[in-house]
Amino acid sequence: MKAVDKATVVCVVGARPNYMKMAPILRCMTESKASLRPYLVHTGQHYDAAMSGQLFRDLQLPAADVNLNVGSGSHAVQTAEIMRRFEPIIDEQKPACVLVVGDVNSTLACALVAVKAGVAVAHVEAGLRSFDRSMPEEINRLLTDQISDLLFTTEPSAHDNLAREGIPSERIRFVGNVMIDSVLAHRGRAPAPESVLRQAGLAPDPIGTSKGYAVMTLHRPSNVDEPKTLQMLLGVIREVSAILPLVWPVHPRTLRNAEGFGLTHLLSAPGLILLPAQGYLEMLGLMSRATVVLTDSGGVQEETTALSVPCLTLRETTERPVTVEQGTNVIVGRDRRRILSALGEILATGGKRGRSPDLWDGRAAERIVSHLITDLGSDPSAVEAA
Ligand code: UD1
């Protein structure tokens, strides 16, 4: 193994769901008197102002030390391009550790470069499994965990999954959920839902009624890449919006597909309020007061549990079972009847209020940084030996 600078931790972000996980960790690293020096790499997997720049500002993330500007591409092209452009950073920075978060292509690509260069890998949000290998994120999770030296977990199921896959317990640290650190830190700064609509140039009236409103996010390839599935889901979404005003910040992938499949006529309905992809604070504001959130995102399932807002997950599986067991999440798949009946139940009873899972307390980043200091600070070989 080459000589390492014990102090440097190369921190990787690439796509929207990474920023809210990395922000509290970077803050803790910078504020602690520890000898760790974060070096922030943005792979550029997401590049739009709405998907990246705005979120950096909302989360008060420092500008990245370097942006690899990889942009969009097929999975192979995107992953390969990230690897190619990330390798020189490792050569130049000689870090003690590469810290990756979540399950996007940037997570796996950078972990793979690091491990082959003999640099320790720490994975935040390790061990989550949907057991659905048709999801690109599931492949990214499985492979990243296999090559990580330190695995930080958010919920007990993750430890069980890792143990089953042969990861020694000594490498696993149950630290809680950094995503919730961000929710708790920024909740007070979130704008009211009415002002989010006003900012988007829309009248706030539809959600100002006592009836409440729903919020939706939808972008998983399994939901939006097939014309028939997207068409069917848009039909259900229109039915939901006839029952409850539905605010929908549309992901660029979903919009592009709806246009490409000739389905844009289904995007307009009286109760359907379309917005462009929103900033972090705007999403928090919209979700906090919603009657229900419909989603296929992983992070939104966790955020709604932390906010105690009922969530309907439009997928057959979740890699975050604690949100169902203890939180506000109900898995409804893409079945029209299940979706409408779960919505009816929420309108009748208020839905699940749940409780916040263990260690979703706003201090997960502190625990991560403290483990990094112990495991890397004095002796980087400690990680290799773990
Ligand atoms: C990626 C992640 C997913 C995460 C999601 C959040 C992987 C495998 N998937 O999926 O886990 O939940 O981000 O957004 O890493 N696009 C833009 N502007 C951008 C970025 C993307 O317009 O800033 C468009 C491009 O046309 C692109 C499409 O959106 O082709 C999809 O983006 P991509 O990064 O490939 O995957 P996501 O679906 O965003």
Describe the protein in words.
The protein is an alpha/beta fold. The chain contains 18 helices and 13 strands. It has helices spanning 16-31, 49-58, 75-93, 105-116, 136-146, 156-164, 178-186, 193-199, 205-208, 221-224, 227-243, 252-260, 280-288, 298-307, 322-325, 336-349, 364-377, 381-385, and strands spanning 8-13, 37-42, 66-67, 97-101, 120-124, 150-153, 172-174, 214-217, 246-250, 272-276, 292-295, 311-313, 329-331. Helix 1 (16-31) crosses helix 17 (364-377), helix 3 (75-93) packs across helix 4 and helix 7 packs across helix 14 (298-307). The longest helix is centred in the first third of the chain and has 19 residues, at 75-93. The two termini are 16 Å apart. The model is unreliable at 1-5 and 378-386 (pLDDT under 50). Bound molecules: uridine-diphosphate-N-acetylglucosamine. Uridine-diphosphate-N-acetylglucosamine binds next to helix 1, helix 2, helix 5 and helix 12.
Question: Short description, anyone?
Answer:
This protein has helices at 16-31, 49-58, 75-93, 105-116, 136-146, 156-164, 178-186, 193-199, 205-208, 221-224, 227-243, 252-260, 280-288, 298-307, 322-325, 336-349, 364-377, 381-385; strands at 8-13, 37-42, 66-67, 97-101, 120-124, 150-153, 172-174, 214-217, 246-250, 272-276, 292-295, 311-313, 329-331.
For this entry, give a set of tags.
single chain; 386 residues; globular; disordered C terminus
